[in-house]
Specification:
By secondary structure, the chain is mostly beta strands. Helix content is 4%, strand content 29%. The protein has 1 helix and 10 strands. A 4-stranded parallel β-sheet has the order 1-4-7-10, with no helix packed on it. A 3-stranded parallel β-sheet has the order 2-5-8, with no helix packed on it. A 3-stranded parallel β-sheet has the order 3-6-9. The longest helix has 5 residues, at 19-23. The mean pLDDT is 88.
Length: 119
């Protein structure tokens, strides 16, 4: 995944997919997968529907030594940066924020999915 990715990418470094495609309902991520995020700022609010299992959770994290920011400011002053609906997923080492000074609601993380970890 990359801030410059698109839904038509194949997930390689040369043709990255976007974050919403990686986390969305049609995601190819299966239990035990790690979704590696390239460094940079991912602008928008993202919904995660990926489902791991107790023995094989899905992990979403940056590539080693790269810094990932999810900033919802460009989308809305009310949409959270990340809404988790899927289960058995670990999100780690991400900076989640809103640079919009008009924060009118929760612009951070909302978790509906069971057995979700934010590390």
């Amino acid at each position: 995944m990359s801030p410059d990715g698109w839904s038509g990418g194949d997930g390689t470094k040369e043709r990255p997919i976007d974050l919403q495609t990686a986390l969305g309902q049609g995601s190819v991520a299966k239990p035990g997968y790690t979704i590696w995020l390239r460094g940079g700022t991912y602008k928008g609010g993202f919904d995660s529907f990926v489902n791991g299992t107790k023995d094989a959770p899905i992990v979403v994290r940056p590539v080693a030594d790269e810094h990932v920011i999810i900033d919802t400011a460009s989308v809305s002053d009310k949409k959270p940066a990340l809404v988790v609906f899927g289960s058995w997923t670990t999100f780690r080492d991400l900076e989640i924020l809103s640079t919009n000074p008009r924060r009118l609601a929760n612009t951070g993380v909302v978790v509906h999915g069971p057995n979700t970890k934010i590390v």
